[in-house]
Amino acid sequence: MTELELKYGCNPNQKPARIYMEEGELPLQVLNGRPGYINFMDALNSWQLVKALKKATGLPAAASFKHVSPAGAALGLPLTEVERKIYFAPEGELSPIACAYIRARGADRLCSFGDWAALSDVCDADTARFLAGEVSDGVIAPGYTDEALEILKTKRKGGYNVVAIDPDYTPAPIERRNIFGITFEQGYNDLDISEEMLQNIVTANKELPQQAKHDMLLSLITLKYTQSNSVCYVKNGMTIGVGAGQQSRIHCTRLAGNKADIWWLRQHPKVLGLQFVEGIRRPDRDNAIDLYISEEHDDVLAEGVWQTIFQVKPEVLTAQEKQEWIAQLSDVTVGSDAFFPFGDNVERAHKSGVHYIVQPGGSIRDDQVIATADKHGMVMAFTGVRLFHH
């Protein structure tokens, strides 16, 4: 198949729409549903991310994409008991690829609502069962077990989008796109991100354990497929905060840092102890948790409201309790797709437990940025490589 007609483009008024190959066959197959223009943009960007992660780390990888940027990405490491609870994972042993997607989606459950899922490995029944219970638009993977495909075909009244892609497909070395009737052309970004990029450690502290190296690679590869400007916080093989598409670097750092704080606050004993009414829908539960953590907690604790969400009215999570809990977050890695122009980015990252930083370097104020990192005993690597994506 060289061409696939789509219902419409980014918006219903943008017709006609299609995806096609100028030469050869499309490297993908729609196994179920009818993916749209944005679905395929998410699918192809997210597939590149998880394929690169698998290559860089040797571990299964997954991503949760929304509007051409990752809401989360993760490696297939076992789930802790706390992670099982905050990601609402099923009990029992789970496959590595299922763990990868559960962690990727759990990074930011609000932003993952209605996501496109990407898997580096064949989708198995464990992954399909979890996907079936979540609000999601579709999934791309190099293949599906028969059981997984049957499960996914029951989702969304049989309309769930399932795409298989040829894992050996390599794009043409030159890519083109049209904007306002004008054709842009550039070389495909085939930059190979590996541990060799992490050797230029510019801080006094140069201790970089293997886990931090994996987290740096995860951060960089996520940034490679995130709309710029972008900053990414990572811990234990999963993103915990992605700030995308901001015009200011510090706003990226704050946005991603705030998401990292929320991820950590979801592990606070008061949040883990929330008792929800029977039958509450997952999105309603996720929204309630977010409001409870945020300064809008009165919206869910008001009389006449909390009874529809909680079995027992929760105690307020105070500002001091949140501050004390966030202060316990540690060993976080942060990556940036371009250099940090000022030390304020490092200061903001420090507030969210960042100990490791990876960024291109090259600012006229690199000395200030390095000095700020040294003040907090951080380890910072300069890659010399910018990762803008538009």
From TrEMBL:
Q: What is its EC number?
A: 2.1.2.3
Q: Which UniProt keywords apply?
A: Transferase
The protein's matches in Gene3D superfamilies, at most eight in alphabetical order, are given as: 1.10.287.440, 3.40.140.20
Q: Which Pfam families match?
A: AICARFT_IMPCHas
Entry GO MF terms: phosphoribosylaminoimidazolecarboxamide formyltransferase activity
Q: Does the keyword Hydrolase apply?
A: no
Q: Signal peptide location in the record?
A: none
The EC class name is transferase
- Coiled coil segments of this chain: none
Q: Which domain of life is it from?
A: Bacteria
For this protein, the record's PANTHER family field holds: BIFUNCTIONAL PURINE BIOSYNTHESIS PROTEIN ATIC, BIFUNCTIONAL PURINE BIOSYNTHESIS PROTEIN PURH
Q: What is this protein called?
A: Phosphoribosylaminoimidazolecarboxamide formyltransferase
What organism does this protein naturally occur in? Pseudoflavonifractor gallinarum
